[in-house]
Amino acid sequence: MEITANNWPYPYWVAHRGAGKLAPENTLAAFRRGASHGYRMFECDVKLSADGMPFLLHDDTLERTTNGQGVAGEHTWEVLSKLDAGRWHSPEFAGETLPRLDSIARYCLDHGYFLNIEIKPTPGLESHTGTVVAFEAARLWKDAAVPPIPPLLTSFQPLALAAARAAQPQLPRGLLLDELRAGWLDTARQLECIAIVCNHTLWNADTVSQAKKAGFRLLSYTVNDQASARRLIDLGTDGIITDRVDAFKPDE
What we know:
Elements: E1 13-15, H1 28-36, E2 41-48, E3 54-56, H2 77-80, H3 101-111, E4 114-119, H4 126-142, E5 152-155, H5 158-167, E6 173-177, H6 184-190, E7 195-199, H7 205-213, E8 217-221, H8 226-235, E9 239-242
């Protein structure tokens, strides 16, 4: 299925890093917790181990969300796979491991869930990470028993998105922005993105109008209060990424 801005199949509500803060972020436990609240689309961060394995982790370093130390991308997958990525959150999740992208893909494909993969490269590995993640995503979704909706690839790093486009141009892409720098729409056009994913405070009547006239779908992160969500819905945006899977019902 070809995904375009006009042929947009993704749900409006997206669970951030699996289940926001209700479970250890970017783990299978978080995906399961998000799903238990009715969410059908998930956002996650993917980077590469030292030996090239795509796995889920937000930070460049390991200390905040695991019992490991140092730059995650400087460790082999054998080392990373043995870390505890759950105890930092709460005793309930002690022993939860860092998942590989293929494990999360299987979970989503088995249950008919949608995925937003944020390409989160170790600094200096932007192009390589974009290439590897795109090839792996294409392989995983191609091998599914039933033709599924492919993942939406997003990144703050234009080099990563350019590499993903070169590797697997058919996979849909979105440009992540934490500020509206000069030429933001041109950058998204050049990368042949179909979506722009902004810090939610950047969307207003003017920026929404500009992006819609340029033909993009509009998503927002990370929206955790009712007033902000209502403002974005009223503006006519196309998706909300939230930590508060317990506060927003995705079927409403």
